[in-house]
Amino acid sequence: ETGVTQTPRHLVMGMTNKKSLKCEQHLGHNAMYWYKQSAKKPLELMFVYNFKEQTENNSVPSRFSPECPNSSHLFLHLHTLQPEDSALYLCASSQDPPGTVTGNTIYFGEGSWLTVV
Amino acid sequence: RKEVEQDPGPFNVPEGATVAFNCTYSNSASQSFFWYRQDCRKEPKLLMSVYSSGNEDGRFTAQLNRASQYISLLIRDSKLSDSATYLCVVNRDTGRRALTFGSGTRLQVQP
Hints:
The complex is a heterodimer. By secondary structure, chain A is mainly β. Helix content of chain A is 0%, strand content 56%. Chain A is globular, with a radius of gyration of 14 Å. Chain B has strands at 4-6, 11-14, 19-25, 30-38, 44-50, 55-57, 60-65, 70-75, 84-92, 100-101, 105-110. Chain B is globular, with a radius of gyration of 14 Å. The N and C termini of chain B lie far apart (37 Å). Classes of the chains: A mainly beta, B mainly beta.
């Protein structure tokens, strides 16, 4: 059981498709994140949202478009992806905005496995 | 140099063994340190925070050496269920505002 839920768990899409990943956190946290995990690579931070405002974009290509309508929901809109974008996309949340509290930990959703064909 | 470096392993140990992992970080401004555990095809989960004075949680002991910029995780009396990838995580509480993950060290405990 997790306080952070992601849908869909698995997604296969063509390079011309448009799809979205959804994340919802039930923990009352104020910060939300998207991470990407490719095979044999460390987790890569993509975006950070703090109180619905984007505070960090880690040089992510524009074919990935995040949306955060409120502190509990986070979307990742996908458009014209490439096969190398196939990866596990992890949503996470934390109580405090990043960088404000020492020891602030984050909690992950189960991830969305994305395959681009 | 990577911001967080770990030996990828795998570490293959028998049940009951004691195993230790080290992790080095490059930024001396790092303030918070954690170990996460990730099972195959699952999300990372917090194992324990790492405190300056060192801390223990059951069979797990974490230590921090700020002078040498490394943290360690010691697992005593290894269980089969400890088999997983262990991620070293650091957070600068100023500047870049999110956690940085190491690539992980894979542990395989064998019967």
